[in-house]
Amino acid sequence: MTRALSTREAVAVVARREFVERARDRSFLVSTGITLAIIAAVVALPQLIGLGDTTFRVAVAGESAAFQAGARAQAELADVDLEIGATADAASARADVAEGRLDAVVDGSTVVVERELPASLRVVLDNAHRAAAGDAALVEAGLDPTEVGRALAVAPLQVDTLDPDAEAAQTRGQIAFVGALILYGQLLGYGFWVALGVVEEKSSRVVELLLSAIPARALLAGKVLGIGLLGLVQLLLVAVGGVGVATATGALTVDAAVVQPVLVVLAWFVLGYTAYACLMAAAAARVSRQEELQNATTPVSTLAIVSFLATFYVAANPDAVLSRVLAVTPPVSALTMPVRSARGDAAAWEVPLAVGLMLGLILVLVVVAGRVYEGAVLRTGSKVAFGEAWRSGRRT
Questions:
Q1: Closest Cα to residue 287, out of 198, 187, 190?
Q2: Predicted confidence (pLDDT) per residue in 352-388, tens digit
Q3: Which of 158, 238, 280, 359 has the lowest tally of Cβ within 10 angstroms?
């Protein structure tokens, strides 16, 4: 006689089945590939095509040694890459601008460009022109520009940063913000997979066979666990792939400022997914057809969208009272707290409070979702009212 499975064994069997079947699903492979491709493109393309590393090519007509020296000095101060040289043929240089071989030609007090003068290049050329014209005026007045420049030379202000971690905090915040955007898709996508699995088993009557062998709550727990593990694996692949591409292209250097926000996002996926998966499962158990699933899960999807929009507010207003509230309020905190904590905006008590409140919500949702699932998963036909499913779950 075959021994009945214990609850733990039943959960493990269902989780393994869900993980393996979903991992083989084409949609999982395609979504993973697309997400990795998008992350790689966003990180690598600016480096590969030279965005933010443009070199301006400028020619100066006539005697221009002082202007060139001033332009090079201004370009170094403004962190602008500049190639500048003299030309004896202004007409030929204009033709080079028209054909794209030069970005600009300086002819006296005029700058010739094809369409528009980039703002960063304008600042460099304006300052160089002003300095050269000023030196010429001093010479004409019988003064030595070098002596005047030495007298006017003042050391720049020294910057004393009270928060030495500011730059690293900004990097952590940027990574966590991108991670929160990805996390939104993961929470909604994998939560919907749980709901879809519940309805598929219910509409095909497979659930009746499964419940003859294992308890309803073990079936639900295994489904949530298996799909959640797969989501965590995908998120880990995306994180490793994104950081790997950023490191290979020189956009990032792997250190604590990179690793810490990645780990924070992964941890909040576990908490957020558990909450949203329970909500999705409870909603899906009350309907019998896939056509009804979208309508049944709309409140949960709306909550996820609100959390997603709240992430932008918290990122833009870190010191606002509402940001502090949103960062500790579950399940919104699953998307808002990673950004706030990674950037260092959260007080020491905020993160434990957010985690504690989320765990408390999860405990409540596990009980509620399990009972609603038990009471409604075998009911076919029209949508089961929440109260009826709750009462049937108690009898079960």
A1: 198
A2: 999 999 999 999 988 888 888 888 777 776 777 777 8
A3: 158
